[in-house]
Amino acid sequence: MHMADALISPAVGVTMWAASAGMIAHCSKKVKEDLDERKVPLMGVLGAFVFAAMMINFSIPATGSSGHIGGGMLLAILLGPHAAFLVIASVLVVQALFFADGGLLALGCNIFNLGFFPAFIAYPFLFKKIVGDIITPARLTVGATLAAIVSLQLGAFSVVLETLTSGITELPFTTFVLLMQPIHLAIGLVEGIMTAAVVSFVWKASPQIFEGPLTVAPSGGVPIRYMAVFLLLAALVTGGFLSWYASENPDGLEWSIAKVTGRGELDSAGGVHDFMAFIQEKTAFFPDYSFGTSESDAAAAPQDHEGKLGTSVSGIVGGLITLALAFLAGFVLKRSALRKS
Amino acid sequence: MAEIAGAFSDLSYLDYLSTKESRIHRLDPRAKLLVVMVFIACIVSFQRHSVSALIPYFFFPAVMIALAGIPLRYLLKKYLFLLPFAVLIGVFNPIFDHTPLLTIGPITISGGWVSFTSIIIRFTLTVLAAFILIAVTGFNGVCAALERFHVPKIFSVQLMMLYRYIFVLSGEAMRMVRARDMRSVGKKGTEINVYGSLVGHLLLRTWDRAQRVHMAMLSRGFNGEFYVKRPLVLKASDVAFTALWCSLFILFRFINLPVMVGHLILGAN
To answer: Which of B118, B168, B203 lies nearest to residue A202, judging by beta carbons?
Structure first.
């Protein structure tokens, strides 16, 4: 579920970074306005709790495998949407930095996928609605399970959209969706069962914990409108920037345009574009370039630089040499550092 | 459980690495954070069939690892542990993209394999960059940099608090799991009701701890404001470090160095 940097484009990464940064700013303001300063240490310690809870494995019946809790929905139930969003975001920052679980540029995507849906969709519109005014253990269980499933489904779908919009993977939309959604239905079910088990235990042992977040009115509506406007603005800004950049750099053009036009067109645009590019390479690039004839090298060089075929024989030879040089640089520097100390 | 316990010892080891002394460690956290972000942004901005143009970026991890004295073997172990995930996602490209893209003598390489190679290289570079950042900056350094970049204070304090208590609470969780394992006489796995009460208890303890922490903060004069004294001063070396690397990254972005080198070599033949 955590997206890596290797599969996203800058347009998607930056847009989602802007969206998540906006959300963090909004939630920080909200938490501060609530003046519930008791929450500050609670949020920090609960973030650490999520990591600790991941060390406790739950054996999934009849499968022989085991899983651990993700914790997003649990945090939303315990802290309410705004504080929960901040805690989930902080957990993801630590995961990205220490475990490379999700990339740094993909952090915006991950915060959005794993934070926004449980805190601002599943919690106010599902969990709160199901639990209602009179809290009962049965309602808590059903609410927590359903909310966890739905937030993971939405998150997984969001991963599909972000990945395909980035255009690094060749997976067709339907295949990707058919891979992601059922897997995350299973994961969501397990997450839901675990969340429900913890929630009902805590409800029995110490019901006052739920008094805070569940008695305060949810404010799910505002962030969504805010979010939509923010996403739109961010997409416009990055799209504008990228297409400006693209006009100077032909190879960037196709991808930036494909990226901002969205999913539907991407598939066809990608196919047609690939085909055209292939024809173009076949007709223009290959005949030009033949091994060992030095006069064609000069002609091929300018096309080579950023062409669709970043790889050519020159690229491979040069790449290996560059790689060797990089290692050599590291080795020499290390040697001189050791000698100095 | 064993692997997660391993992950936590990793966490403290990375933290320990960040306390070492080197020219890179002494740099301002802001400079390092900025350089790593520009590095990643440049790499992901290449189109999906780029391979050779990405290679010059290996200079950055190579130089940083050498100058900061990060144990290469440790870093590679961490990287290899993550590699299967990248392969798993990237392997769909050769399956779905059969467009022949490259012919070297009798061998024809499809676009899928080229973009697969590109994904693996991107993954290698970005993952190394993230590990290097934390190993030479430390988590509190990153938080300080974020704060100076105007990340809301509540959020940077949240990050620092979370990090401080990870070690305490993971120790507690590990003791709980060990205690349960020793009493369950070889029975593997945690059933749902046991799971609920184990994690539930951990949660209740966490809650109590948060209350004690809050009281301790109140008794030291906490009134909802945070005062962090962190004298971050940009030195000439920080500016030089940032300017040098960023301009190199941008240069690599627009000039395919390996192809030029290749032409030089092949042309000379």
So the answer is: B203
What is the value of ipTM here, to two decimals? 0.85
Give kind and range of the element (H or E) at residue B110.
strand B107-110
**pTM score:** 0.77
Q: Which CATH number fits domain A5-242: 1.20.1250.20, 3.40.50.2000, 1.10.1760.20, 3.90.226.10?
A: 1.10.1760.20
Task: Choose the closest CB to A96 out of B92, B130, B206.
Answer: B130
Can you give the pLDDT at residue A89?
A: 94
B8, A76 contact by CB (below 8 A): no
Mutate to test the interface with B, among A8, A311, A332 (most CBs of B within 10 A): A311
How many H helices and E strands in chain A? 14, 2
Residue B111 CA to its chain's centroid (Å): 29
Tokens describing residue A61? 């019946």
Task: Identify whether the C-beta of residue B213 lies closer than 8 Å to the C-beta of residue A45.
Answer: yes
Report CA-CA distances (Å) from A150 to A140, A182, B219.
15, 12, 43
Q: How many angstroms away from the CA of B31 is the closest CA of chain A?
A: 16
Least confident of A166-180, A206-220, B28-42: A206-220
Closest CA to B79 of B33, B39, B132: B132
Write down the domain spans for chain B: 2-148+233-268, 153-219
